[in-house]
Amino acid sequence: MKVSVSPGHNINGTLILPLFEGTDSLLAAHEEGLHTALKSQINRVLQDGDFKAKLKTTMSILGCEGGKAMLVGLGKEADADIHAYRKAGATVIANRKKAHGTELTARFCNASIEVMGAFTEGMLLRDYSFDHYKQQDEDEEKEGEIDVRITCDEGQESDLTSIIHIHAGVASGVHLSRDLGNRPPNDMYPEAFADQAWEWAKDYDNVKVTIINYDQAVKAGMGGLVAVGMGSARKPCMVIFELNKDKKGRAPMLVGKGITFDTGGISLKPGANMDEMKYDMGGSATVFGTMQALASTGFAGKVNAITCMAENMPSSNAQRPGDVIKTLSGKTIEVLNTDAEGRLVLSDGLWKAGEYDPEYIIDFATLTGACVVALGHEATGLWSNDDDFRTRIHEAGNAVDELAWPMPLLPAFEKEMTNSKIADTRNLGAGRYGGANTAAAFLKQFVPTRNYEKDGEQIPWAHMDIAGTYWGAKTNSMVGHGATGIHVRTMYHLITNG
Length: 498
Ligand code: BES
Ligand code: ZN
Ligand code: ZN
Hints:
This protein is α/β, with parallel strands linked by helices. The protein has 15 helices and 17 strands. Helices cover 34% and strands 18% of the residues. The radius of gyration is 25 Å and the shape is elongated.
């Protein structure tokens, strides 16, 4: 999508007119430069109450000699915050048909830069499709890129242009996350992800990507990553991203679960909907997408990230239930269920994170079905060893309308995960209940202390279980279907505002 900003009254292509509930005729400022036929048509619709301007609704006016228009509901004026504007913008793109054409002019008057920015952000985010795997119909002409003009008041152009530039960069990060997630698992395997990160880094002078391949992971003692990935012909790897690495001081560290396909391994999953387990690398996609959002908007701070990539397959080389593995931390794990593999790869990723002396660590993982049972598709589960830090992340999520809900990190859950008879820890809880919490408690054991000091204080850490939010969220207005790209925006907000 191309976006330009200008004051003035020209209308290119279809007029996009955002309206509050209760509007029964056009304002004088809306009417400027409008063809009389279109003006009277719109006024008729509004007077008759045929368009109520409820949020997430549109009405198209086509076939009028004065041009084409799409009326867009913003809902009640008193409730019209940036979230409403973002949703309204997304609804325009969701409801746009070929007949509207690809040229759109959104007309605002007396609107703030923030709300116009949010409206544009919604349009940018929703302008996404994943059709690389479809043949192009020869008879059908391919639609060009959507070209949007935002008309604002005099004096607003330059600030609005800079805000939109940021939104476009962040949206490119969300779309990268979605592309990675939507890619079929025969094409999105650990080394394919690593190669893509490697190629991507070439676009930026201030980005470094390091790949720890299978042999190096074995040598380094990354027993969690190796155990999960060894059953697959597509070998596991770890990918390390460093942005502005020469900057001094501590930096955020993001860690992602990157299971490019989760069959469950020898503890095989049932067949129904198993295809959805291609999304089990959603955590690593969130991390990569966030790095893209930061790099493309020219963020000058230092940020590091680690993704733990593996394919969880059953085979003669696969790990077995009952195996005991030794992780990078030195801690051993009794693997009681090979389907609880995300925590195994993360145990090495979290421990490795300590080498970077991070300001804080946040991990992202499609970790448990139990989290989906608890929160549905409406919120990510959020655990932390630091209450203030957890609140900051919760608030960053609220600021961009990506909910992350506080969940408890209780000593009892941790205890449940350490009572293996033969190893330091076990990868399965003792009973059926609280599975998302026992998983979080398990991860906590692999969060390093500063400089790995024995009995030192743990680095501030948060765990975000995106099993319910990385895909399948029908109420997410920014997404039609497939991977959502959740939390790239939350992380961009947290990192750039903190
Ligand atoms: N990737 C799954 C979690 C998952 C399941 C995400 C469904 C989204 C939808 C994870 O690796 C897994 O299989 N977890 C098990 C853990 C259990 C064996 C302790 C689960 O949730 O059933
Ligand atoms: Zn699993
Ligand atoms: Zn998994």
